[in-house]
Amino acid sequence: MEDKARKRREAFKASEMHILLEEVEASKGLLFDRFRGAHTNKQKAKKWGEIAERITAVTGIHRSDLEVRKKWQDFVSLTKKKASDLRHQTTRTGAGVNTAQPLNDDEEKAMAIIGFSASQGIPGGIDVHAGAGIRNPSGEPRQEAELEEPIPHQSTSDAPTSSPIMTSLTAPSTSAAPTSSPIMTSLTAPSTSTAPTSLPVVTSLPVVTSLPVVSAAHTTPSTASTVTASIAALNSCQCSQDLVELEREKVGLLKDVCGLLREAADRDKAFQDEIIILKRAKLNIAARRLALEEESIRLPQHQAINATIRQTFDPLEVYNDAAVVQHYRLPREAIRHLLATISQDLRRATGRSFALTPQVQLLAALRFYATGSFLQVVGDGLGLSKSSVCRSVQAVTYSLLSLVPQHVRFPTTRDEMSATQEQFFRSFRIPQVVGAVDGTLVPILTPRVDAHVFICRKGYAAVNCQVVCDHQGIILDVVARWPGSTHDSFVFRESSVGRLAATSRGEWRFLGDSGYPLRPYLLTPVANPQDVHDEEFNEAHRVARCVVERTIGRLKLRFRCLHKSGGGLQFSPEKSCAVICVTAMLHNIAAKAGVALAGEPEDVLTTLVARYEYPWSPR
């Protein structure tokens, strides 16, 4: 059944693909945006059904909503793979002939829909071992291209819209000039103005279309002159003298009405001026009161007081060992070693007496990594403002980023690879395995560019981070450069270790869950176990692969800024990727130092391994 359905999806005609791409592009916000309000699963399924109905109505070929949705997913996956192959082929051939086929119009349109980040990764994203000179176990250099330089994208920001503060205090606006209509309109119609109510009604007058409307709402000083000109026009038309006299009387009445309206407008303007003066006085009083309250609030956080706190309070000297680990997730010696390594990068060339020291900046960043709390809350314990904590986190993150390849290392030589395989086999009885691979979602601030690409399957903006670890839970590789909607298998295939594993000729392997494809270098569980050996392998595979899930859980438990409960990383995608890689490095430092998590007095992994008897063994 699955093969038959796949063949039906492959048989989509060009007209069907044109309709599918057109509808998906028009409904991109509904189909791929996060769950908020009306954007629910039911409405998304309804939209896919409408697309299927239109394809059926136009082409005459019956397509179900599930079939159309699967076709879109297959087409996007093949398009991304083709674009990736084209990019790698272009890098390898250089200025020579490019043998890869270019994208057609439908594929170009699909790439425009899914966005730049989904096809080439987050600009500024990090693959730790990309271009790091990784060699095959045989000692030969890699035949893979260097990681491309990310293409900067232009961020779009909406210009702030200035709105008036006191729109209700402005003077009344002058109405537009009256339009041309018969003169009797304003004199015979009922009116609420102060004009006399008893006016002579003339029913035998001819219609005069050249005279303007004279109403209470559109009375202007030039009305009388306009009426006089109209009377002259009547005289030139040889109208009766009685009609002229009657019009003169009406002009007099109209002048009286104009005078009354002018007096009312003057009184209203004076009243509005008094209201404006009164409201301005109230606003001035409120502004003074608010300024006094703000001054009283800001007084305890004065710069000098904060500087005194920083100079007199040293957490590394005041806290004991347990408190240091609880606050900063690292032992005292590890923090001082990191401080000695990056202190020159953090030292500020300034003559100010209140400049932040490298130690204060490092402790502020470590405290933020550990708690993921608001920047103001992090700064309160160190005598820092919110802006100072933000700058410290950014400076420390990019300073520590250069140290990541030293602490997150994938085996590069044959001896290192053999030692890793032997240790993994002793722990889990599966041969030729160097590590387990899995992906995890790290929530971030929703970006302004290609926001729909970052919405993950759980409904929030995230970065899909790939983690590879060994049998002890030490992270060997981390890839943080793909948005949340990207599949784990695509991230692995595009990563440097994934491309290196494809050239290993089956000499070493990874363990992955059922979301990854089965490859000679990637072992996944048996989908439909036929005998007891398949079941035993699946059980051993499950226990061995859980090491990467526990590693990811410990990483997020140790550094709460990566977990959704901590609010996620309220940074741009590029800065979030840097924080992910730095926290992975700090996790390795803490794990190698034997730092236990809160409420975890012993190594849970070692306990589980000791209690488990492996029924499966290689034959």
TrEMBL record:
- UniProtKB keywords: Cytoplasm, Hydrolase, Metal-binding, Nuclease, Nucleus
Presence of keyword Cytoplasm: yes
**Location of the region described as Disordered in the Swiss-Prot/TrEMBL record:** 127-198
Provide ranges: composition bias, Polar residues.
Answer: 153-166
Q: Which GO terms describe its cellular component?
A: cytoplasm; nucleus
Which is an annotated Pfam family here?
Myb_DNA-bind_5
GO molecular-function terms, A-Z: hydrolase activity; metal ion binding; nuclease activity
Where is the protein localized? Cytoplasm; Nucleus
Provide the Myb-like domain boundaries.
4-76
Q: Which cofactor does it need?
A: a divalent metal cation
InterPro entries registered for this protein in UniProt: HARBI1-like, HARBI1_animal, HARBI1_dom, Myb_DNA-bind_5, SANT/Myb
- Where is the sequence biased in composition, kind Low complexity? 167-198
What span is annotated as the signal peptide, if there is one?
none
This molecule's function is given as: Transposase-derived protein that may have nuclease activity. Does not have transposase activity.
Family, according to the entry, reads as follows: Belongs to the HARBI1 family.
This protein is called Putative nuclease HARBI1
The taxonomic lineage of its organism, from the top, reads: Eukaryota, Metazoa, Chordata, Craniata, Vertebrata
What is the gene called?
harbi1_124
